[in-house]
Specification:
The structure is a single chain. With 245 residues, the chain is an all-alpha fold. It contains eleven helices and no strands. It has a domain of 92 residues. Helix content is 79%, strand content 0%. The chain is elongated. The protein starts with a helix and ends with a helix.
Length: 245
């Protein structure tokens, strides 16, 4: 349940993006993250420092995204927060108590070496997740050659057909656009239209990865951690007695 609560701003971002685009999605995610803090305070629940950090980072980068109309700022957010977590877990290895032991030590009794391995694993996982997001957001490119047949056809049509461009890039019918938006559309050169279409496809890929990719990786890693912990947890008294018998 806590994992779902933590991922709620990402889920809202995804839904709002599909409905109204990346800038409305960014504003919605900031609002939901702030609302989460308010709800926790009203319910008098503890608020982790990571939740405050996440809100500050989301509000800062989200604000720049909306104000400057540049989605690159919000695209950096998953990488920066994952790398911050990676650094926190890594630095705890040099202290008295590894971070995973601080988090789970009250529920589990494990050797110090196991806690250190778990902490290192989390540090590497967060570092990898941040790097993977940066790759998808800023290195990976959608090219005309990488498109399937249907998208190849749309890529050709957006260059000349206003209606196709409006649906594929703006996400709305041509009739829904006002006079200024239509004038801006018709002023675009064919190459600019096609570049905008490829950009939109890349944006879609990143948004899908942000939800399904990062969430899927996190769930898989948590499952792997559970399997690893089950192999190192001490046997229950009943199990020891049945083994002895």
């Amino acid at each position: 349940m806590k994992l779902l609560f933590d991922f709620l701003p990402i889920i809202v971002f995804f839904v709002a993006y599909k409905w109204a685009g990346i800038y409305w999605a960014t504003g919605a995610a900031v609002a939901v993250a702030a609302l989460q803090i308010v709800v926790l305070r009203v319910l008098r629940r503890p608020i982790d420092k990571t939740q405050w950090f996440n809100l500050a980072l989301l509000a800062g980068l989200g604000g720049l995204t909306i104000f400057l109309h540049d989605e690159r700022f919000i695209m950096w957010k998953p990488s920066l927060i994952n790398w911050a977590f990676a650094l926190g877990f890594a630095l705890s290895l040099f202290g008295r108590t590894p971070l995973t032991e601080r988090m789970l030590g009250a529920q589990l009794a494990l050797p110090r070496a196991i806690w250190q391995r778990l902490t290192l694993a989390w540090a590497l996982f967060f570092a990898f997740s941040g790097a993977l997001n940066a790759y998808v957001a800023f290195v990976y490119q959608v090219t005309p050659q990488s498109l399937d047949a249907d998208r190849q056809a749309i890529y050709a049509q957006v260059a000349e057909d206003d209606g196709t461009y409006a649906r594929a890039v703006q996400g709305k019918a041509l009739a829904e656009m006002d006079a200024a938006q239509r004038a801006e559309l018709t002023a675009l050169a064919p190459a600019q239209r096609q570049a905008a279409y490829l950009h939109k496809l890349h944006q879609d890929i990143w948004v899908n990865f942000k939800l399904f990719g990062l969430l899927g990786l996190t769930l898989a890693f948590v499952l792997a951690q559970g399997i690893y912990l089950s192999r190192h947890m001490p046997a229950a008294d009943g199990d020891r007695e049945s083994t002895a018998a």
